[in-house]
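Hello,

Following up on my earlier ticket. Below are the two sequence lines again, exactly as submitted.
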Amino acid sequence: MKTAIKPGRFLILLVLCLLILVSGYWAFENAVDREDGIRRGLDIAGGLYVLMEAVETEDREVDDDTIERAITIIRNRVDELGVAEPVIAPQGDDRIRIELPELEDVEQAREIIGRTAMLKFVGPDGEEIVTGANLVQARAVRQPEVSPTPFVSLEFDREGAVLFEEATREFLGETIAIYLDDEKISEPVVRAIISGGQATIEGDFDFEEAAELALLLRSGSLPVELRELESRLVGPTLGQRTEEVAVYAAGVGLALVFLFMVIYYRGAGVIAGVALVFYLSLVLWALNYLPTTLTLPGIAGLILSIGMAVDANVIIFERIKDELRSGRTLRSAIESGFQRAFRAILDANVTTLIVTVVLFIIASGPVRGFAVTLFIGIVCSMFTAIVLTRLLMRLAFKAGVIRSGAYVGVKI
Amino acid sequence: MINFIGNYRKAYLLSLILIVAGIISLAIFGLNLGIDFTGGTVFQVTLGEDFSMEEVEAALEPFEELEGAAIQVVEGRDLAGAPTDEGLIIRGPYMGEERRQAVMEEFQNRFPQMDMEDSREESVGAVIGAELTRQAILSLVVAILAMVAYITFRFEFRFALATISALLHNIIIVLGIFSVLQLEINVPFVAAILTVFGYSVNDTIVIMDRIRENIKHRKKSDYAAVVNHSINQNLVRSINTSLTTLFVLAALLFGFHYFIGSLDLVVFVVALILGVFVGTYSSIFIASPLWLNLQDYNFKLTRRKAA
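Thanks for your patience. The regenerated structure is below:
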């Protein structure tokens, strides 16, 4: 049965396909944008990842509150560095995960993240006078007329000011030691009674070091000592090269898939190609707007889901061919092909979805990211195959674009 | 129609050989576990100038932890195909932050052209490695149980058993090949194995679905014919799907190997490619006849009871 092309329906089909291709291009452009695009893991974007563990000591217990306070303080410190989109989050009971993409000064970032920064003023009798807890301001100052080296100027709150005044009165002419994390950084002689809560820390440091110390003191000391468990530092160029290659390779791979589908399934293959573009824009859109991070393992998940998206189309087309061979008309072959393929697609995909859910619950870190990406990929691929491919096939049939078995690759 | 079922014993034999060889290799040589599992430090540096191994060893001299560390040269290309500066990958035991920084500084002092932006430095504590292994195994076990439950619910228990057996078969073979080749594995490999997991199950279920459907319409209780017919009906799909997936993977393999030259990435794609081959093979030659065997066994069992 041959029917002519129906211009109205054909136009709808054409416009729909063009819309999908344009939105696909748009989604791609949006997603690969390094600034506003998909949030990339550090293996792709470059940056610093650190996993810290809070160390429990006799006088410092680790609980949710300690971790929360530690996170706030680390966030304050990182914010002062001006890092874009830092992630500082608890992991498990006693861990903190820190992800800093696109860092300018890695060494500085490292130094300020883990430092407890416990400041203590101790009298000659070994008694604690005042601590960083009473600090309200700390600044690095360069004032050659006062001191040849840069120093840190401190300001205490009222309680601290009173304590400090009493101590300077008591220890006039003696030394007061200044400790940072149990390391003596300075031991000035008290030359006058200091009231008003102003003090300075002088030491053998350059301006940058003074600024760093001031930053640490300003943001407060960590309530607990943190120990590094894992650290990954990837240079931005290295990460970017990996991403570029992955994007190009995926492009080439998809072009091959498209070519193969068109050669093998003819008109239906073109529809599968359009559906694949639609599927990719869905996935890219989801990755872009859901709180997910794309890592290298995540790309593996995407490849699998591309395979599954094509698979769904292949299953459908093979079913349609079977139906045609068993003597059905094209119209009923398309309908029953979809119906019969549906169960296979559903069960195969749901079984894989189960794996992703299990992984999401049990795993952490990159494997979890993989699970999320794969989950998104499978859901999008199922939706595309069941809804869009079907819609396009029906439209193509009604428009008279797909007119006989030859258009789905059946030789009769 | 190709007779797949008639030759299933040959397929079993082939798989048995692969599995036994794999298990022996795993038992004797084990897997070449990378720092993500064992803990340790990896440096990747692009020195930006010609260098000799002696110079590199001299730079590492002050760090006794890195004595005997594995040093690998990586060659990459930019997207235009021009070779980029050679890089180095150094693998050693876990080092604290200060020591690592000292290593990087030493390199920077000796090779002023070194590109810090094109470098990486990763360090994993032993605790994390052990956790990764535990998590990977636990998630595999739970995922398998959950899948058995789902397949039993949607199909029947024997389908679940056949599917999961094929799945384990695939994973053991891929692990075995990695054990024989002694390629270093890290987190991306875990993701690759999980992908193989997903692919295998997906591939098998589609055939099982055909069998399930054809049983309903079968004329007599000749299950072997039904299974063989189902495999044949599904053959084009099996080939096409693995081909299209392989297209994407082949492009990635070429890209990572030719342009980046990083073994980690290549290993990752190789695992996926192996998985597609083994997955497609096992759905046809292992899972389907296995289901048939289980079905026959069950048939005999019920007959014996009746007698």
